[in-house]
Structure formats: C-alpha cells, structure tokens
Amino acid sequence: MTRTLDRRGALKMGLLTAMGFGALSRHAEASTDLQSKNKVVVERWLTEFWGKTYNPDVVDELAAPEMVLRYSLHRPRRGREDIKMFMRGFRQAFPDLNFWGTAPLLADGDRVIGQWEGGGTHTGLAFSDFLAGFLPTASGKKIHFTGITILRLDSGRIVEEVGLDDGVTALRQLGLLSNAQAEDDDDICAQYC
C-alpha cells in the first residue's frame, strides 16, 4: 500500500528535520555502518590471529602500531612486534592452538565484543609466558577454556584487545594451579584436565 505524503505530513517531516531528528537518523546510520566495518575487522583478526591458521601479516594490517593486548594469563603486550613475538612463542609451544567464536560479535561505537572458546596441546617448545608458571618442553598437557574479549578500534585499526578468560581453568589443566581436578563432572576442567 503506497501512501501519498499530504501537506500536513510534509510539514511534520520538515519540522522533524528542522528540530534535528533527520540528522539523528543519519548519525545512527553512520554509526551502524562503522560498527559493521569494525565487526568485519575483528572477525578477520579473530580468524587469522587467534584461529587455527595464524597469519602474522594480519598484525601489521589490522593492529594499530601501539596496540595493547591484555589477558589474565599473560603480561600485557604493547606494539605490533611485541604482539607478534607473543603469538609466535605461544604457537611454538602449542602448535595446534585454536580459538573460535561461540556467539555473534556485538558492536557498540568503537568497541566490538566477542565470546570464544579454544585451546591446544603443549607439544612444542618450553613456555614461560604464563604469569603463574613455566612449562618444560612438550609437557603434553592440554588446555581448553572460554572467554570474552573486548576490542577497541580507531580508524579501522585495533588499538586495544582486553580479554576476560577462564585462566583458572587453563592453569589447572596445565598443572600450574593446585586442585587440578574439578569436583563437578559438568565443569569444563573435569572434561579436559
């Protein structure tokens, strides 16, 4: 059904535009476009940086030069080279390292939030990057845990990634935290420790 705008409707539309409501919708449209673009950047980051097949070039392409990466299990990383060095060491220790999304990405302004799970098996080099301890070469221990990550972008580049992970589970699985075996069979540690 097509509706013709009468004189009164046109007047109302003009009044709404004059009051700034037309600009509001244009702003909302631009914000939605920015959020969609940011989600595309983050989706690529999560796939190529944290995913099964690591692409080191993604750091130079998507990270701001002074990007900050923070997770509870590791010391904060600053800058592209430090972030690449971190991931290179993590993957040398855990060659099958893989994290994947478990829910659609959410975007609000310059931030994108992702929910994930993943892990790997320590079959590689010794690893001393965990804040809670050190793993000797090829311990054979497996980690599988979950988390939520918030990424902040500026001009299409990731400037900050802050993750809230289940580091206690990972540290228990690696034997770096006492009481490694969980009491509840439904607990993730009980399945993977």
Write the layout of secondary structure elements.
Layout lengths: L6 H12 L2 H30 L6 H6 E8 L6 E2 L1 H14 L4 E4 L4 E3 L2 E11 L20 E13 L2 E9 L1 H7 L14 H5 L1
Parallel strand pairs: 1-7
Antiparallel strand pairs: 1-2, 3-5, 4-5, 5-6, 6-7
**What overall geometry do the principal axes of the alpha carbons give?**
globular
**Uncertain stretches of 5 or more adjacent residues:** 10-24, 180-185
Gap between N and C termini, in Å? 62 Å
**Helix fraction by DSSP (H/I, runs of at least 4):** 25-40%
Main sheet characteristics? 7 strands, mixed
What class would the helix/strand composition place it in?
Answer: alpha+beta
Mean pLDDT: 86
**Cα-atom Rg, whole angstroms?**
23 Å
Tally of contiguous helical segments: 6
The SSE string, one letter per element, is: HHHEEHEEEEEHH
Strand coverage percent: 25-35%
How many E strands?
Answer: 7
Folded structure, characterized:
This protein has 6 helices and 7 strands; from the N terminus they run αααββαβββββαα. It has 193 residues and is an alpha+beta fold. It is globular and about 50 Å long. It has helices at residues 7-18, 21-50, 57-62, 80-93, 167-173, 188-192, and strands at residues 63-70, 77-78, 98-101, 106-108, 111-121, 142-154, 157-165. It starts with 6 loop residues before the first helix and ends with a helix. Strands 1, 2, 3, 4, 5, 6 and 7 form a 7-stranded mixed β-sheet that branches.
